Amino acid sequence: MLDSATTPGPSSATPSGPACPSRIAAKLPDGEGATLVRAYRTHNKQITLCSTPGQHLYYYGEFTGRSDTGIAMRAEKTGDGYTAWNKPYRYEINGNTVTVIENGRRIGKEHLQRVASPH
Fold first, then answer.
1. pLDDT at residue 10, rounded to an integer
2. Is the pLDDT of residue 4 over 60?
3. How far is CA 82 from CA 3, 14, 62, 100, 115, in A?
4. Over the stretch 93-112, which tens digit does the pLDDT of each residue have?
5. How far, in Å, are 22, 66, 90 from residue 104 at the CA level?
6. Which of 12, 40, 77, 84 is an S-S bond match for 47, by CB 3.0 to 4.6 Å?
């Protein structure tokens, strides 16, 4: 038996987390109702991980203060973080770093600061 009074609405927190920011969810396939998994900031970028109702995980990366630079890509949870792909690039989040790999060669590594939600 379901109690409709306790069913969360699309902008409410759910057992899997708070709502993914609407401006980001709108750029994800099947993003309506997506939940925020994690959010990070580097010295000049924001990284947001959201899960869609279809249980697909997305990595959304953008330059801080420049939402027009955002790109969404499929991601997966790994044993010690997350990995996302945008061929020929791979983004690996492990602990407090994100490593950018192009065609198997590391081209960047940045320190991450975990934040409650992107701006």
1. 38
2. no
3. 35, 21, 17, 12, 16
4. 999 999 999 999 999 999 99
5. 33, 28, 8
6. 40
| Domains of the chain from N-terminus onward | 17-115 (2.40.128.200)
Collapsing DSSP to helix, strand or coil, 46 comes out as strand
**8 A C-beta contact, residue 82 and residue 99:** no
> Tokens 């609407």 — which residue?
22
Phi, psi dihedral angles at 18 (to 5 degrees): -70, 170
Give the span between the Cα atoms of 31 and 52, in whole angstroms: 5
Closest CA to 82 of 111, 48, 32, 117: 48
- C-beta neighbour count of 60 within 10 angstroms: 25
Q: What pTM, to 2 d.p., does this model score?
A: 0.83
Average pLDDT over residues 11-28: 78
